[in-house]
Amino acid sequence: MTSPANTIALLTDFGYRDHYAGVMHGVIAKIAPAARTIDLTHGIPPQQISAGALVLSQSWRFFPPRTIFLAVVDPGVGTERKAIAIDTRAGARFVGPDNGLLFPAADAAGIKRIVELQSRRHRLPEVSATFHGRDIFAPAAAWLARGVAIDQLGPAVKQIVRLEFDGGVKQDARTLAGKVIYVDTFGNLITNLSRTRVDRFGSDFRQCRLSVRIRNRTPVGICTAYGDEPAGVPLATFGSFDLLEIAVRDGSAAEHFAAGAGTPVKLRAERR
After folding, report:
1. 194 and 121: one domain?
2. What is the Cα–Cα distance from 169 to 179, expressed in whole angstroms?
3. pLDDT, position 168
4. I need a labelling partner for 231 at 20 to 30 A (CA). Which of 71, 129, 237, 241 fits?
């Protein structure tokens, strides 16, 4: 046993209607009653692995160093996909399915060790084919919180599924093309175009104005804040994700543009 960690943060697509998230809390409480649990969110859209990965990657660094992140967005539950735990150089640990969900956050934290969750001692006696969050992931996180070394949970793994947010971004003479990867509660459309990528693109067109177009609608300009435009007016800005997002002042861009995850977005350099 190593020194125990006292915080487990949960992220799932289970929603708030059913008992699933609550049961995971119960499993943790039985195994590690001293652990503090924090619900990061259970509102990830169902089966949207990239949305869960984005939220996790944006959140982990704001928690205490030894926090265990228990993340379950798992459309492949019950299949051959691995169940894994990851230790990082930053101290954070990640537990969940090997489907890309954990990779961006763990990669940013500096992956040190990965194991496959095979230890029968550190899971529930009966494992269903549809609820590994309860039967495998929650117990593993709880045992880590009690101080069990990560290598006691199963054998080492060298490779895991990678998920890259900027995959599929394309650039031609005057256009940078990406897509919406997440829609928040306010209907803001967060894209996979990072500030760094946009700044690099814009530096090639210093005499041009950058505009953002979605669904062939009228292009919108890039603002500093939502309040830079009047109520009801679409705009683009860099939000807390540090990704380009499309919003509507005091409204929902998702509704205004009838857009969601996967909708193409284009950034274009136009002469002033």
Report:
1. no
2. 8
3. 80
4. 241
